[in-house]
Amino acid sequence: IDQTEEENAQKELDNFLILAIRHYMMSLEIGESDNLSIFRVVSLWLNNNHHDELQEELSRHINKVPTFKVLPVLPQLVARITENTGELSMSMLHNLIERCAKDHPHHVLPLLLALANSYKDKDYCQSPLQGASKPETRVVAAQHMLSKMKQKSNLKTLIRDMQVVSEAYISLANFPHTPDKSCKVFKIPKSEPITKLKNVEHVLCPTVTLPVKKSGNYQNVLGIQGFVETYYSVGGINVPKKIECICTDGRKRPQLVKGNDDLRQDAVMQQVFTIMNSLLQENKETLTRRLLIRTYKVVPLSQRSGVIEWCNNTTPLATYLIGGGGVTGAHTRYRKEDWSPTVCR
Predict the structure, then answer these.
(1) Tens digit of pLDDT for each residue in 112-157?
(2) Cα distance between residue 32 and residue 47, in whole Å
(3) In degrees, to the nearest 5, what angle opens at C-alpha 203 toward C-alphas 202 and 207?
(4) CA 137 to CA 39: how far, in whole Å?
(5) Phi/psi-derived region of residue 329, left when phi > 0, alpha when psi is between -120 and 50, beta in every other case
(6) How far apart are CA 106 and CA 246, in angstroms?
(7) Per-residue pLDDT tens for 184-211?
(8) What secondary structure, in 3-state letters, does the chain show?
(9) pLDDT by residue (tens digit) across 146-158?
């Protein structure tokens, strides 16, 4: 009796699971009021990866969902790809990512390139890097997917040039900086590939946030005109470099190029804040009060390199707490009886 009850309970759970997926997918196909349900769909999909009936139900709907609704969860989906496309679930995942890349290349290709270039730092780093001797299967899968898209779509030129731009950033990120206390501005060596990037107008400046267009028409993006030939040393353990990218609108946009640092978690946090802003926009009270979280662009380029949008008119948290430049920090102002940061160190 217990076994029969358990089987019946499992069947009931399976029925509810299929019913939930079916209606979530139908909502995404034809509705616009609950696009964030894509997160629930992906959660159910990935947590029931070997549920054949669920995969079949998904396969009947997945190609009908507009690709712009999938973009918010794409970082998590790209990280799940493998070479095993024989499985229905993985085949659907590959096809979905390729559809998104064709419709929204400037949003999707950087994710694939970052994964495909996971171990690219070793080509530019002078010191040997520790890591897996054999590439992860998802890295190889990303490389194969990019090669496939270059052969079968009109993205060949864009993928090629985005790869060139990405490698130029990675090279600069790993360029060894020689500290000089008497100088904060340094010349970028002519040998660095980034100095040769000129008029790459169809490649989006990586630190520019491009609004998603349902139509997939991205003809007039803010491309790269070139780079200022100097960089600033901003200190820090890994000595990131502040550079300026000259965009096709004539503006110089400051960027922070970081090496020897994994920016993937930083990018995920910005993704979380973006989702929170979407929720704040949907609530009448928070919308009226214009509540939001200020975000900035974080673009991982490999496992240990990336570029960050430089935020002007901001104060580092440490400076706010501890103080500096003749300004007393908040810790001293509000907690005078506590030990000073110097004593704590």
Answers:
(1) 999 999 999 998 876 555 555 678 899 999 999 999 999 877 899 9
(2) 25
(3) 135
(4) 25
(5) beta
(6) 18
(7) 899 999 999 999 999 999 999 999 999 9
(8) CHHHHHHHHHHHHHHHHHHHHHHHHHHHHHCCCCHHHHHHHHHHHHHCCCCHHHHHHHHHHHHHCCHHHCHHHHHHHHCCCCCCCCCHHHHHHHHHHHHHHHHCHHHHHHHHHHHHCCCHHHHCCCCCCCCCCCCCHHHHHHHHHHHHHHHHCCCHHHHHHHHHHHHHHHHHHCCCCCCCCCCCEEECCCCCHHHHCCCEEEEECCCCCCCCCCCCCCCCCCEEEEECCEEEECCCCCCCEEEEEEECCCCEEEEEEEECCCCHHHHHHHHHHHHHHHHHHHCHHHHHCCCCCCCCCEEECCCCEEEEECCCCCCCHHHHHHEECCEECHHHHHCCCCCCHHHHC
(9) 999 998 778 999 9
For 66-126+134-315, CATH gives 3.30.1010.10
* Widest Cα–Cα separation across the chain: 83
43 vs 77: CA distance, rounded Å: 10
The distance from CA 189 to its chain's CA centroid, rounded to whole angstroms, is: 28
Position of tokens 């069947």? Answer: 11
Phi, psi torsion values for 271, nearest 5 degrees: -65, -45
Tell me how far apart the alpha carbons of residues 179 and 149 are, in angstroms, rounded to a whole number.
43
- Spatial CA neighbour of 116 closest among 145, 90, 92, 94: 145
Inter-residue contact 68 to 96 (CB < 8 Å)? no
* Pairing of β 298-300 and β 305-309: antiparallel
The overall pTM is greater than 0.85: yes
